[in-house]
Design brief:
382 residues, alpha/beta, Rossmann fold, 13 strands
Length: 382
């Protein structure tokens, strides 16, 4: 059986990559690929429960996650070499065949440890915006890695503007379309519901650009209610307070925050009329694909490959605007409001068809399997 260490340097259950790791691991095991999820011990309780519920093997490693806390930053650099050496020994001791580094370009410990252990390293790039220092470190290390999983064309162009990677596999965020199906989901009861209910599902952070949410909410009809669903981690409380201050300053009263780590987002999608992606950057936007699988129309900023998708698939209910085009967003929401008043059906089954054909969990699992076996086969042949 092929043995893969899938390493993520954040033990929190905080986003799409963590769920992707868990959701592809179990079906891969039935196909002869054993995945061990390697994560830090710190703040990992919820993610461990998520992995256990899916029968996924994991290993809790004493690994420092970089944060804005001064003490944590100091520890990150003091323990950097020691943790990498320990990781390399772990990979060798446990006869790992492939090291899959899942968290994007900033997660470099698994990359270096895999190289030191003499393993084939797969670097999974699932972000399209990082600080300049992180980008420079990635640029230095990428020449030592042969295999890349890339979430979208925009990600590839960001990280490889000139010379393309030696061996790449385009693997987007998976959606379990059998679960995210409007026919079987029971909606939640949205508090303070409006005539047109807009949903955004994300963790609260500056990259999710909630200022845009506030600005649009202040400009459209009060009959449109915006619902934000997502967790607030300790390091983002200041940002949430900034957003709430902006809400007060603009006298906005049509935004409702559901601050929690939502484990059943499909019920919120079912209760909503439209999905709004406000992000400054996304690689493969899990929540957008989930919402589309639920047949929701989507209004989004120009992230990932959504603009290209909307232009080449006119049948979709997918409107994409530059984040500065506030009037474009407002017009799109007002149009949907008028359509609903005319009792038009807003749901679009073509959105679901597109996701099933491109991001269904079974397809993404198969892409992992084929890539793993191809890379391992190259490794065995050397």
């Amino acid at each position: 059986m092929l043995k893969v260490a899938n390493i993520f340097e954040d033990g929190r259950l905080s986003g799409g990559p963590q769920r992707r790791i868990a959701n592809v691991a179990k079906p891969l095991y039935a196909m002869g690929i054993d995945t061990i999820v390697v994560i830090p011990k710190d703040e990992s309780e919820e993610y461990v429960q998520y992995l256990q519920a899916r029968g996924v093997e994991y290993f809790l490693f004493d690994m420092t996650r970089p944060t804005k806390k001064y003490s944590q930053v100091v520890r990150y650099f003091l323990m950097f070499s020691i943790e990498i050496i320990k990781l390399a020994f772990y990979f060798r001791k446990n006869s790992i065949d492939l090291v899959h580094v899942s968290g994007g370009s900033w997660q470099i410990k698994g990359v270096i440890a895999g190289i030191l252990a003499g393993k084939k390293v797969i670097w999974h790039l699932n972000d399209a915006h990082v600080p300049n220092a992180v980008y420079k470190v990635f640029t230095f290390l990428r020449g030592h890695v042969q295999y890349f999983f890339i979430a979208s064309k925009k990600v590839e162009n960001y990280y490889f503007p000139d010379k393309k990677p030696l061996q790449k596999y385009f693997i987007g965020a998976p959606v379990d379309c059998s679960r995210f199906s409007p026919e079987i989901v029971e909606p939640v009861v949205l508090p303070q519901a409006g005539f047109l209910n807009v949903i955004t599902v994300a963790q609260i952070s500056p990259i999710k650009n909630l200022d845009l949410l506030v600005d649009i909410a202040s400009m459209v009809s009060p009959e449109i209610k915006f619902h934000f669903v997502g967790p607030v981690f300790p390091g983002q409380k200041d940002y949430l307070n900034q957003v709430k201050s902006r809400i007060v300053s603009k006298s906005v009263n049509n935004i409702v925050f559901h601050t929690m780590n939502c484990l059943d987002p499909e019920r919120y999608y079912k209760a909503a009329d439209v999905y709004f992606c406000t992000s400054k950057s996304e690689a493969s936007p899990t929540a957008v694909w989930e919402a589309m699988s639920m047949c929701l129309p989507v209004i989004s900023t120009d992230v990932s490959d959504l603009n290209e998708v909307s232009k080449t698939n006119k049948q979709l209910s997918l409107k994409v605007y530059h984040e500065s085009d506030l009037q474009g967003f407002c017009n799109a929401f007002e149009t949907l409001l008028e359509n609903k008043k005319q009792q038009d059906i807003l749901a679009n089954s073509e959105n679901r068809v597109y996701v099933k054909n491109n991001f269904d969990l079974s397809m993404i699992v198969d892409k992992h399997k084929r890539a793993y076996e191809e890379i391992a086969g190259v490794a065995h042949a050397v």
